[in-house]
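Give me structure tokens for this 438-residue protein.
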Amino acid sequence: MRMAISGGSGTTGATPATPETNGTPAVPDRRRRSVRLVFAAAGMAYLAVGLTIPVLPGYVTGTLHGNAGDVGWVMGGYTVTAVLSRPAAGLLLDRIGPRAVLSSGMLLMAVATGGYAVSTTLPLLLACRLLLGVGLGATLSAATVWMVALAPPERQTWAIGLVGLVNYLVLAAGAPIGQLLVDHLGMNDTWLIAGAMPLLAVPLLAAVPGRRRPPAPGTRSGGALAATLRPGTAMALAAFGYAVVISFAVTALTRRGVGGATAVVTGYALAMVAIRLAGGRVRSDFTSPRALGGVLAAELAGVLLIGAAPCLPLAVLGAVLVAVGMAQSYPALGTLVARSVDDHRRGTALAAYGAYVNIGIGLGNLVLGKVAASAGSTAMFLTAATALAAATALAAHTAHTTQRPGHSRHMTEAGSENPARNTPARNNSARNNSARNR
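Here you go.
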């Protein structure tokens, strides 16, 4: 099986669309099994993060005698290296293939997480967390690219969304299990068990078919990175809605006198998981201007609803609408990225695109926090809504200008016309014309 990610402008060998059966994505059995294996391996590796989240803050403030600021650096530091490592991971994906990058990323995650057991100082622990980010960035980038490669073009959106599903499922299950491990086994054994999870995931990859395609002569990453600019910017702006729900909604609702405000976060998380699980049964890939603009408009409405909600049910409904936008826009915009570049640069493009959502969450927290502190929560919600309005317009424009599979009109890299247009009828007509001329 060739590892090219078929579908999109200027590519060949696109897998024909096939009907879906019983809501299952239209993937041949072996390929569907391969996607599931990559999904399972990524989830198992991500347990290195999920199992340690609930206990790391206590380890920093207790065993290492740190303060709240130290907790912030330890808990958030890995996201910086995860973002920065994605473009480099993308370049490696295009050169050595996803199997090698994914295995290497998992190895780094195992070493970094196991290293917590010997981190007797804050600098050592922070160094391990930064190394974890490098491994995590490579792992998630490679898993995304590989699952997209295994899925046919019409199911690329579904495949991209699976990585987000890994995140929410593992965080939901890993946190209570991690606390249980600490209570019964202690800190060091918990670190070692968490570090072993990525290593146990590596053998699963042996059963996944695929071979590396060497980069085409003269291939450069610049075009791939440029292809991520518009969809990535739209995704970064859309992430302001996530920042509202996770970081600011509970405080704003509590000050408004709405009790049980944490249910907003729970409702958001459950909605995200439900939407991603149902993704394989939804025929639309939400990459049309109307569909993509619609889900982001729903997210905008959700933010405004949370900002004005007088009671908890309306606030939870707002959080669900934000989840609709985030759950569908990330894979849809990623699919537009995949369609905008040739096979040899798709790894670089998708890896770089994945960094935009992290940038958007960080920027959203920073900007919205400043606005809330200086002008109040109402201004904060309106700022987030403005960002989402811009995201909606930009995403719809990007969808409008991106060719769907099978609709490309431009030349291939080799300089010849798209082979899909060289139909037998066209060839026969050309021969007839040539005969008449003779």
